[in-house]
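User: Sequence in, structure out. Go.
Assistant: Echoing your sequence, followed by the structure tokens.
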Amino acid sequence: MKKYWSFFKIRFVNSLQYRAAALSGMATQFFWGFMYILMYSAFYRTNPAQFPMEFSDLSTYIWLQQALLALFMAWYFDMDLLNSISNGNIAYELARPLEIYSMWFVKETANRTSRAALRCGGILLVAFFIPQPYGLNLPESPLSFLLFLVSTFFGTLVMVSLSMIVSGITFYTTSSQGVRIAASTIGDFFGGGIVALPFWPDGLRQVASLLPFAATQNVPLRVYSGNLAGMDAAWSIFLQIFWFIVLCVSGRALFRRALKRVVVQGG
């Protein structure tokens, strides 16, 4: 465990160097946050009663989504890891006295948490001072905030587990591009990254809520805003834990099978 913790600290500290990239990312996320909120406000002015969330709750959802984007963005993959499969550098990884799935899982988690740590504070601070209903609300209760932290933790683990599935599939391809595009599109759509799941039609929303993609950003953002509470919140967190276990076991099995037949090319 100490070895994996060392990998986490090294990758986390290394990623903290990119402060300029974090500042430019924050500016981009402020732009997207305002754009989404203003777009939704135009629809809410027509008939606010027809929407499943209060506009202030939706604004909170969007600002949290932007603040925690690094944790839950479905299109982010550690290209050093994926490229090592294609160019043969996977041989160096296999030479380490560590289990490769766990090592890559720790690295991916460190990358996401370090990026989020650089960006979320500034976004949340500014969003708190934006006038209502366009700004960020406080959580409805201390319990909601606690459940938000728990669901954020498991949502991150599910997101990393999904990324590891993509890494495992890359062993069977000549390029990871096609797998990455498909995974990021499906993950972002069904995870509530484009349109929050409460706005989906009933039947489709119920199906999407059971998929692993909804166990990422959808749950913590809705728990914080109060859209998921009580038994609904508990059930959603249970699904997060369930999908983390399923995806983790599946990812390990995929890696074990792929590594039995891996062929390293190159000089």
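User: And one key feature?
Assistant: The chain has one domain: 19-260.
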